[in-house]
Amino acid sequence: MPECQSPPSGTGGEGSGSGEASFGDDTAPGPLEDGGYVTVGSDGESAEEIEETLGSAGYEADGRRGFSAEDAASVRRFQRAHGLLVDGIVGSQTMAALAQYAGR
Predict the structure, then answer these.
(1) What is the CATH number of the domain that holds 24?
(2) How many domains is the chain partitioned into structurally?
(3) How far is CA 25 from CA 20, 29, 34, 41, 45, in A?
(4) Are 18 and 69 in contact (CB under 8 A)?
């Protein structure tokens, strides 16, 4: 399973890179590379940190290894509640919104 994925070209979704937050900086949980994103099937420290941060924000994560379909459903609920593009992908905009809940 990939730890970090490059955004698909021409998708128009979060993975297309909005420039609002950089991965791997102090504003977002997880050591993703610039322009990367986490989606179903992603694995590793970034996926785990996103699950923890979702829990801190009040959204249930399944707690299993890797970023699952259930985690993506929680991300969609989070995105909807925060006025973000609802696609279940944790890209730069979602990471920036999640950052306020990191470490709680």
Answers:
(1) 1.10.101.10
(2) 1
(3) 12, 8, 9, 23, 15
(4) no
Q: pLDDT digit of tens for each residue in the chain (104 aa)?
A: 334 444 444 334 554 443 333 334 344 444 454 567 888 988 888 888 899 999 999 998 887 888 999 999 999 999 999 999 999 999 999 999 999 998 77
| Domain carrying residue 52 | 19-99
Tokens standing for 98?
A: 């999640």
Instruction: For Cα atoms 12, 64, 32, give the angle at the middle one, nearest 5 degrees.
Output: 40
- Write down the residue that tokens 């919104």 correspond to: 97
Q: Is 6 within the bounds of a domain?
A: no
Distances (CA, A) of 100 to 9, 72, 86, 96, 97: 28, 19, 19, 8, 6
Confidence at residue 34, expressed as pLDDT on a 0 to 100 scale: 54
Residue 4 lies in a domain: no
- Residues 27, 21 contacting (CB under 8 angstroms): yes
Q: What is the pLDDT of residue 25?
A: 39
